[in-house]
Structures are given as structure tokens and as C-alpha cells.
Amino acid sequence: MGVRVDEVRVDEVITLTAELVGTDSVNPGLAADGAGEAAVVTHLEARLSRAGFSTHVIHPPGHESGGRVPRPSLVAIGPGPAGAPVVVLNGHLDTVPVAGLTDPFTARIDDGRLYGRGAADMKGGVAALVVAAEHLSASGAPVRPVLALVADEEDASVGSEAVIAALQGLGITPDVCLIAEPTDLAQARSLRGFAVVEAVFPGVAAHSSQPELGVNAVTHLGRLLTAIDAYAPVVRAGGGDLMVTSVRGGGSPFVIPDRATCLIERRTVPGEPSDGVLEEIQALLDPQWNAQLSLLGRREAWRLASSGPAAALARRLGAALGTQADFDAPYWMEAPLWEAVCPTLVCGPSGGGLHADVEWVEIAQLAAFTEALVEVLADPEGWIDDAD
Length: 388
Fold this sequence. Notes:
Distance between the termini: 22 Å
Number of helices: 9
CATH superfamily of the largest domain: Zn peptidases
Strand content: 15-25%
Strand order of the largest sheet: 1-2-6-3-7-15
CATH class of the largest domain: Alpha Beta
CATH topology of the largest domain: Aminopeptidase
Helix content: 25-40%
Shape: elongated
Radius of gyration: 24 Å
Order of helices and strands: HHEEEEEHEHEEEHEEHEEHEHEEEH
């Protein structure tokens, strides 16, 4: 198709990964002093504009200006030929906080690894998408790459939600979406969803020397903890999970606590809707506790389609990379949001230390992924016309 794998220069993706790691984009929803994604968007917008992409900065409602930290995302539309298949290349620009890291924004290369906050999750993947998209556009490949580089994936996904809402107005109708989250170059077969439930236990305060005059909210919470521990193995046997991750109760000694709360996390599997979690937890409560449950947030699980362009693209990428669609992610990613728009695939380069004190991406995976993207996407007949 006029594009050779050996034209993709490894140093391009290494250099861009280092530049992105060197730009603070800690999610301000996770750290009070988080810088947000604005500086990364500015850097990438300038680069992609020079490469001939039509760039659009997308702000979620309420974050355009004012006292809040801006949360921009970037959509960059490649100059592909009219009527060419449209592939959305998606990655997130935010990172988790940097507590515990030494020089988190100084990219360091050692023994085939590039170190720094976000190197694996997922600035390496973003760099690969950008470099591959630039090569595809410059070569005149019969595909239109659309980069959707989003804010806030690590928290509330306001970036992808805003970008998805804006696509129609930008004239974009995607044929397929590829998300370059770290998967060790395997194609994700599934990912789990989740629901977070708050349980509030009312009590009656009394002097602790006369506990019979009060109602101990902490005692009731403790009984729920026991019930959850007893039921959790049933959930895990089906591939999900159930746990309490936060508890609060009582304020001082010598007082029977009149309020206690906890947060309950339920991980769901594909085919298991998250809207049934409240009833599931309710069944573990004793009505005499008078506990109130609230669903604080939920996201659905996802499974790679067995046919269609995403499945065909997964096969082609797998053949190019020597991997398979055998990665079942225990955590959530934004694939279900994009699946509502078009068939979606998750595949990207990895390393180690995601969300940890030492994070790195494997340079060999970066190079292999970038080269495979150019090779496979440049031949859309292999994943559009061959989709079964």
C-alpha cells in the first residue's frame, strides 16, 4: 500500500513518549495539585497541526474557563482520502498522582525500558498512535486516522464523553475504534465493569456506659462486613468481585456511634448488568438496620465482538504482533463508551508499575506496536472488507 514497516522510525516514538512523560498531566480529580491535561494537549495540537491534521480542542461542560482546572481533550482528523474508512485511535492523556516517585516527569531510558509517570499508562501508547497516524497520513494510505486523545480516563471519563458527543458535529462517523491501553500487545478479550455503592447506617447516640439506650451504627456496619465476606466467594466464582474499600463510624470514645458508612465495590463481568448491584447488596442487609444504599457510580463490562471490523482488526494486529485476543482485564477501561459509537478494540504496549512507585514502558513493545499499526491500518481491506 506504499507504506513499509521499516519507514517507521523507532526514535520518533521514543522521543515523543519522553516528551509526553516530561509534561505533567496528573488528573486533578485524583490530586488537589494535579496539573490536568492542558499542557499535553497544547504540545500535541501544535505537532499534529504541522503534520496536516485538522485539530479540535474539546472541553467538557463546566471546564472551559473560570476557576476550575481546564480538562481539554484533543481530536485530530487526518487528511485521508474521501470515503476512506475512519479509524479512531484513542488514548488518555491524564495520569494518576506521582506520590512516591523520584523525578516522575524526567524520562529515563535504561536496559530497554523508558521510565517515568505515565510511561506505560499510557503515554507510550499515545505516542505510538500519534506517530503511526502521522505516517499513515503522510503516505497517503487509504484510511482516515482520527486521534481522540482524551482527558480524565483515570477518574470520571469526562473527556471521552465530551469527545464522543462532539464527533457528529465534527463530521466523524467511525468505522472502528482502537484504544491503545497497555495490554502487553495482546488484544483485550474482555474487561470487567464496576459499581460503587455507599451504605449509610443510622444509629442513636448514648453514653457508652449505657449502650442499651442507644443504637450502635458501627455494630450494624460490622455485620454487613461479615455478610459481604461470606458472600464474596460466590461472586468471585462467577468471575466478579465484591469488597468494602472504605469505612467510617463514630466520633469519640464514650459515645455510642449514631452514624456509620462504608463504600462497597462490585466488579461485574460481561453479560452481568451493573444496575442489579443495589438489589444484590440490599439482600445482604437486615431490615432492622435501616441502612440506606446509594449507587455512586457504575460502568458496564465489555467483551470484544466475535465478528465485524474490530474482530477482524484484532486478528490482523495479532498476526502482525504475534499475539492473541486473550487478555481479560480485571479492571475497567473506556471501551464500553466507544463501543456505543462503533466496534472497538483494546491493544497497546506495556511495561510495568502502572499506578505504582516505579513505572516504565518496554521500548521494544512501543516499536513493535507502532510498526504493526502502520502495516495493518494501511490495508483496510484486511479489516473492513474481510470483517465477517
